[in-house]
Design brief:
With about 450 residues, the chain is of the alpha/beta class. Helices cover about 30% and strands about 25% of the residues. The protein has a 4-stranded mixed sheet with strand order 22-23-1-24. Strands 2-15-17-16 form a 4-stranded mixed sheet. It has a 4-stranded mixed sheet with strand order 4-5-3-14, covered by helices on one side. Bound molecules: shikimate-3-phosphate.
C-alpha cells in the first residue's frame, strides 16, 4: 500500500452542542507508543505493551519494526508484544519503509537505521514529504551514516545507509526538538563510545526515560537557563521490559477544551499523562481562568498521570511565553480555539516550529479562525487571537493535519453556527475514536 495520494477526503461538521457531560479515557500517548515499539525492536526478549495507541502513525512504526526484524503481535485482550531483533542485529528491510503521516515514527527510525549497517528507503504521504528531514540527516551523517538519495531540500523519499560503528558524538540541537534529540540518541545507542545531546530548551523526555527503563546508562542534566544535556553510553545490553502507555495529553486536550468552552459542561478525562514537559497547555489554560482539577494523581508506567476534571469556564486572554512552547508544541491549534472564546487578547509567542508540523499550522490556524469570524493576526512568530463569542459557519482546510481537523471540530461545538472541516480522515493517525468519544459526551456531528 502506498499513501502518496490521498484518495478520498471526507468532510465533517460539528454542530452547536448542549452541555458536554461524562467521563472518558483518550487513547494511549503517541510519543510513548512509537518509542515502546522501537525499544521493543532494539531489546532482546519480549516487550509487552499495554495501552498502545492504535492510530495509523503508530501502526506504521509497528510495520517498520517488523521490516527490520522484530515480531510484533497484538493479543486478543488488547495488549501488544514485540520480540526484538536486538541492538546491532537489525535486518535489511526488503521494501520501502512507508511512514504515512508520521513525523515521529520516520525520524526516530532514521536514527535507528543510521546506527546499523543496513540500507533503508523512507517515504511518506504528501504531508510528510513536505517536512524538513535535513535537521535529522545533518547530525546522523556526522555520526557516520550516509544519505544515498533524497528529494530536494533534504526531504522524503530518501535512502539512508547506516554506519556499522557510529562515532562518539556531541550535538547541540539547533531547535528544541525531541525528534532530533531522539534520532541522535537512537543512532548513538550502537556506538562504542558516548553520545551527548545538548538542547537549548528542554523537549519531551520520553526517549531518555525509556532508555533508562530498558537498561541503558543515560543521564540528563540542566544546561543553561532552560536547556538540558543528555549523555548516553553506547552499546548497552537492552533488556525487554513491560511498558504501560498513559493517555495522551495531546488528545485529552480536545475534550478538555471542548468542556471549557461549551456552557454547562463537566467532563472527566481519565489517566492523562501530566509529565511537566507535556503540560504547558494545562498551565496556560489555568492562567486563562479555566476550572481544571487534577484528581487521583499517581504514577503509571514511569509517568505521572491524573484524572483531569474540566468545567465550563469564563476564560480571559493571556500572554503565553516562547519558552513554554516545547511543552505544548502540539496544543497550539486547540489553545487558539480556547483563546477564540476568551475575553480579550491572547498572544502565543515563539511559534516558528509550527510552520513545519503536519501542515504549516500557524497559517492553518489563522485561516481557520478567519473563516469562522475570529479576529487574529500573525506578527513574526507570534499568533494573536482576540476572543469573544464565535460566529462559526466556516469551512476549514485541514491540509492533511489531524490536529487542525479536531481543533476546529471542537470549535464548532460552541460556535453559533456549525463548523465544517474539509477532511476528517487524518484524525485516525492519532485519535481513531475521536468522534465516538466526543459523541459520548454529547457532541453533535453531521
Ligand atoms: C514528538 C516531538 C514533537 C511533537 C511531535 C511528537 C516526539 O516534535 O511535535 O508530535 O514524539 O518526539 P519535535 O520534536 O520536532 O518538536
Amino acid at each position: 500500500m502506498t499513501s502518496h495520494s490521498h484518495s478520498s477526503s471526507a468532510p465533517l461538521s460539528a454542530l452547536s452542542s448542549g452541555p458536554l457531560i461524562g467521563r472518558v479515557r483518550p487513547p494511549g500517548d503517541k510519543s510513548v507508543s512509537h518509542r515502546a515499539l522501537i525499544f521493543g525492536l532494539l531489546a532482546i526478549g519480549e516487550t509487552r505493551i499495554e495501552g498502545l495507541l492504535e492510530g495509523e502513525d503508530v501502526l506504521r512504526t509497528a510495520e517498520a519494526c517488523r521490516a527490520l526484524g522484530a515480531r510484533v503481535v497484538k493479543h486478543e485482550e488488547g495488549s501488544w508484544s514485540v520480540w526484538g531483533a536486538g541492538l546491532g542485529s537489525l535486518v535489511q528491510p526488503g521494501d520501502t519503509l512507508d511512514f504515512g503521516n508520521a513525523g515521529t515514527g520516520s525520524r526516530l527510525m532514521m536514527g535507528v537505521v543510521a546506527g546499523h549497517p543496513i540500507v533503508a528507503r523512507f517515504d511518506g504521504d504528501a504531508s510528510l514529504r513536505k517536512r524538513p528531514m535535513k535537521r535529522i540527516l545533518d547530525p546522523l551523517t556526522q555520526q557516520g551514516a550516509q544519505v544515498l538519495e533524497q528529494a530536494e531540500g533534504g526531504r522524503l523519499p530518501l535512502v539512508i545507509a547506516g554506519a556499522s560503528e557510529p562515532l562518539p558524538f556531541e550535538y547541540k540541537t539547533p531547535v528544541a526538538s525531541a525528534q532530533i534529540k531522539s534520532a541522535v540518541l537512537l543512532c548513538g545507542l550502537n556506538s562504542p563510545g558516548r553520545t551527548v545531546v545538548i538542547e537549548p530548551e528542554a523537549s519531551r523526555d520520553h526517549t531518555e526515560k525509556m532508555l533508562a527503563h530498558f537498561g541503558a546508562k543515560v543521564t540528563s542534566d540542566p544546561h543553561g537557563a532552560h536547556g538540558r544535556k543528555i549523555t548516553l553510553e553506547g552499546r548497552p545490553e537492552l533488556r525487554a521490559r513491560p511498558v504501560i502507555v498513559p493517555a495522551d495529553p495531546s488528545s485529552a486536550a480536545f475534550p478538555l477544551v471542548a468542556a471549557l468552552i461549551t456552557p454547562g459542561s463537566q467532563v472527566t478525562i481519565d489517566g492523562v499523562m501530566t509529565n511537566p514537559l507535556r503540560a504547558g497547555l494545562l498551565t496556560t489554560l489555568i492562567e486563562m481562568g479555566a476550572d481544571i482539577a487534577l484528581e487521583n494523581r499517581r504514577e503509571e508506567g514511569g509517568e505521572e498521570v491524573a484524572d483531569v476534571v474540566a468545567r465550563y469556564s469564563t476564560l480571559h486572554g493571556v500572554d503565553a511565553p516562547a519558552e513554554r512552547a516545547p511543552s505544548m508544541i502540539d496544543e497550539y491549534p486547540i489553545l487558539a480555539v480556547a483563546a477564540a472564546f476568551a475575553k480579550g487578547e491572547t498572544r502565543m509567542r515563539g511559534l516558528s516550529e509550527l510552520r513545519v508540523k503536519e501542515s504549516d499550522r500557524l497559517a492553518a490556524i489563522a485561516a481557520g479562525l478567519v473563516a469562522n469570524g475570529v479576529d487574529c493576526a500573525i506578527i513574526g512568530d507570534d499568533l494573536i487571537v482576540r476572543g469573544g463569542p464565535v460566529r462559526g459557519g466556516g469551512v476549514v482546510e485541514t491540509h492533511l493535519d489531524h490536529r487542525i481537523a479536531m481543533s476546529f471540530l471542537v470549535m464548532g461545538l460552541a460556535s453559533a453556527n456549525k463548523i465544517t472541516v474539509d477532511d476528517e480522515t487524518m484524525i485516525a493517525t492519532s485519535f481513531p475514536d475521536f468522534k465516538g468519544l466526543m459523541q459520548k459526551l454529547g457532541a453533535r456531528f453531521a
